[in-house]
Write a structure and sequence with these properties.
By secondary structure, the chain is an alpha/beta fold. It is built from 15 helices and 19 strands.
């Protein structure tokens, strides 16, 4: 009898797991509650605009490329990548901005122009970041996170001190740079990891290597082109994809999931992989008493931020914007306090603005711009129409001040998305957008496990387990759980009867 698998959720981790299991000989059914694949990387069209709903940064392109290569394909046959130059711009107070070129030599010159000696110090900083990145990718990131023994091997032990796990990112950065503008640039990649730079391990300077050396890329047509590529590969691999299919619960007998109940009927399989929100699976889909982790455990987790997003179409071109724009005019410490220490709506938030129509003519009508605003917020905040309107006016005002032209009166399409939408669309625990905070106490085997401790054929993938949030980690997460299942299948998952 052929082995079978049900994967719940067609986000990138679910797609990755489904494709990987199919390669191992499983008959895979991938169920998705929405009318398209992608999960948080879905897309919608309105008023002639096409908006990517979630991820907008494309870093670490080798992760997806290697995935396709492992399946005998070239990702270049599925989508086209363009490296952005400049990678992005950072806007400081009083209209000052810094553009970060894609060339590292040119970037060193930018740093040197801001702080004497910073160009050469950036090279030394990046040497350390490169070591951390390459070591993490080879020795840490692809571990299933089931036991501390996974880290007890020669490469991990030899690298421990150089990985800077016990030093804070903030302290590490300040050994190289003094100018606050440079520190904001260097600290930017960790802002969505779920803690302040003072609490994030210096190990995560590897993200600066991903940013400044590997580059910022854009899939022509939009981020959803990556989802389309994975969806095509899933279909080519024999995965059955069931859209508009909501999982309503699981029946557990003799410590196995026997049935997956959906709005379209009952499904059965040898193996179940949930790429849905981990907490939702634990406490809503499983029967009472079968959760992998208690409600108390989940309440004690430190979450990465949620966010308030605006999808805006404007009927004009805006000269000063680039594809990626970071508005760092105000003090991040007060914004961080409102996210991590005293959860509340921030008074003067930093924000991010993506304008993909600077690169891609297909995402907006001719002569118009496609704008994606994002404000990081604490998870679990109550959002109301008045709050959403208040912050829309805030980001529009700041953008208008920088650009020197009116934008608000040119808006022809507007939609917002926040905590309550993450809960409604993804059953996201506390409306989180980025999973668990990447603190040392929630890393590797200290994250929620990829396997259920008592339901022996239930496994998990996605941003709340290893390796963590983000597009490349989601792809890796699916691979990790599929590889683990494949290695265990002979002795544990022979029959669904």
């Amino acid at each position: 009898m052929a082995s079978s698998a049900i994967v719940i959720g067609a986000g990138l981790s679910g797609l990755s797991a489904a494709i990987s299991l199919a390669k191992e000989g499983y008959a895979v059914t991938l169920v998705e509650r929405h009318d398209q694949t992608g999960g948080r990387a879905r897309v919608f069209e309105a008023g002639g605009f096409r908006f990517d709903m979630g991820p907008s940064w494309y870093w670490m392109p080798e992760v997806a490329a290697d995935f396709f290569q492992q399946h005998g394909r070239s990702i270049d046959d599925y989508m086209t990548l363009k490296r952005l130059d400049p990678s992005y711009q950072v806007i400081f107070g009083k209209g000052e901005q810094v553009s970060l070129p894609s060339s590292f030599a040119a970037l060193q010159a930018v740093f040197e122009g801001i702080e004497t000696g910073a160009g050469s110090r950036l090279a030394r900083f990046m040497e350390e970041a490169e070591y951390k990145y390459k070591t993490a990718m080879s020795a840490y990131v692809r571990k299933p996170g089931l036991h501390v023994h996974e880290l007890c091997n020669g490469e991990v032990m030899r690298s421990f001190l150089r990985m800077d796990m016990l030093q804070s990112f903030s302290h590490h950065a300040r050994k190289f740079f003094k100018d606050e503008r440079l520190l904001k640039i260097i600290e930017f990649p960790v802002l969505f990891l779920g803690a302040t730079p003072e609490r994030i391990p210096a190990m995560y300077s590897m993200m600066n290597y991903a940013d400044m050396k590997l580059g910022t890329w854009y899939p022509e047509g939009g981020m959803h082109m990556l989802v389309n590529a994975f969806t095509r590969l899933a279909i080519e691999s024999g995965v059955e994809i069931m859209l508009n299919t909501t999982v309503e619960g699981m029946d557990v007998e003799r410590n196995r999931v026997k049935r997956v109940r959906t709005n379209k009927g009952v499904l059965t399989a040898n193996v179940i992989v949930s790429g849905a929100d981990y907490h939702h699976t634990d406490h809503e889909l499983l029967p009472s008493g079968k959760a992998n982790y208690s409600a108390h455990y989940w309440e004690k987790r430190v979450m990465a931020p949620s966010c308030l997003i605006y999808y805006i179409g404007v009927s004009k071109k805006i000269a000063r914007l680039q594809h990626h724009n970071l508005f760092f005019e105000d003090d991040f410490r007060q914004h961080a306090e409102a996210i991590y220490n005293s959860p509340e709506w921030p008074q003067q938030p930093l924000f991010y603005l993506c304008c993909p129509s600077k690169t891609d003519d297909t995402v907006a009508p001719p002569g118009m711009e496609n704008l994606f605003f994002l404000i990081p917020t604490a998870p679990g905040l109550l959002d109301t129409p008045d709050i959403r309107n208040h912050y829309l006016q805030f980001v529009l005002r700041k953008t208008e001040e920088f650009c020197g032209e009116k934008i608000g009166e040119q808006i022809v399409y507007s939609r917002s998305y926040a905590c309550t939408d993450f809960i409604a669309d993804y059953s996201a625990f506390k409306g989180n957008a980025y999973g668990l905070a990447n603190t040392l106490g929630q890393t590797a085997f200290l994250k929620p496990s990829i396997r259920h401790k008592s339901v022996t054929n239930l496994f998990f993938t996605g941003q709340l387990t290893v390796p963590g949030p983000g597009v490349p980690p989601a792809i890796i997460s699916g691979q990790v759980v599929a590889e683990y299942i494949s290695k265990q299948k002979v002795s544990r998952y022979e029959s669904v009867i």
